[in-house]
Design goal:
Helix content: 25-40%
Structural class: alpha/beta
CATH topology of one domain: Rossmann fold
Strand content: 15-25%
InterPro entries: Ergot_Alk_Oxidoreductase, NAD(P)-bd_dom_sf
Mean pLDDT: 94
Radius of gyration: 18 Å
Bound molecules: NADP nicotinamide-adenine-dinucleotide phosphate
Order of helices and strands: EHEEHEHEHEHEEHEEHEHHHH
CATH class of one domain: Alpha Beta
Number of helices: 11
CATH superfamily of one domain: NAD(P)-binding Rossmann-like Domain
Strand order of the largest sheet: 3-2-1-4-5-6-9
Shape: globular
Length: 284
Amino acid sequence: MDTTVQTLAGTILITGAHGKTGRRVAARLTSAGHLVRSASRSGDHPFDWTNPHTWPAAVDGVAAAYLTYQPDLALPGARDAVTGVATALAERGVQRVVLLSGRGEPLAQECERAFLDLVPTGTVVRCAFFDQNFTEGPFAPAVIDGVLALPGAPDVAEPFLDAEDIADVVVTALLAEGTEHEGRVLELTGPRAVPLVETARILGDAAGHRVQYQQVSAADFAAVAEAAGLPTDEARGLAELFVDLLDGHNSATTTTVADVLGRPARSLEEFAAEAAAGGAWARA
Ligand SMILES: NC(=O)c1ccc[n+]([C@@H]2O[C@H](COP(=O)([O-])OP(=O)(O)OC[C@H]3O[C@@H](n4cnc5c(N)ncnc54)[C@H](OP(=O)(O)O)[C@@H]3O)[C@@H](O)[C@H]2O)c1
């Protein structure tokens, strides 16, 4: 990747550096010669969004930061935690800060505003659903199991977004020369809104076995999330959030990935072909 002019010296904090976007951002920064501080509950640097005592040590001495909140900016507790960490960064004069966010979530957008009030030079990267939900994390088994079960009507379309594109945009916002991305919300989507029923077909075609789309209730979706290991409150909160998100209001696409990177966003089909070739959905 050659999308940045590197002007940043010093350690870059990444919260959730083993997660879907954090891992990819960390890899890009490390291979470009930057020092990364990986902060999470099991990271090199102990950091827990639910424990404010862990925040000062994580932010001390960093030159920039990429913040990925867990579990979701639209869930209770997010605003206090994000503003707490943003305040600690602002007090230390850290100006290059990128916050990961989600589209069409009023509470997440409140967090974004509070973050930009505290760090006016920061950038929000507001994203559509990640393609990598189908290969990583609690919902990844769906494709292998052959049933994509979501609380949305089959014809609702989502412009699925590749975490590789998100990472390229985040690294650009962190390292780019000048102030172009400062104080901005970059709203990222994939190139096309894909109906959920077609999403299952695309994933199944790539995986080499049938993947059926099933619309489920919020309660059934929460039960699946809980069975996958999420705490009960988090599973219920995510289920309610998914019902809101999968009502069609997020189906518009943006050109921001292409505008920032000078190349098109990757399609769901490209992601699926690559994931299948890497053995992501091979059945035993
Ligand atoms: N997934 C999507 O489609 C999507 C779309 C738009 C926006 N987002 C945003 O992306 C963020 C999460 O992304 P994700 O769901 O894909 O997860 P993810 O990035 O895969 O997150 C996992 C990471 O979070 C860390 N983590 C978990 N709980 C933590 C805690 N209490 N304190 C500190 N670190 C913690 C984990 O490390 P440890 O286990 O070591 O703590 C791991 O590194 C949310 O803010 C969400 O709003 C997601």
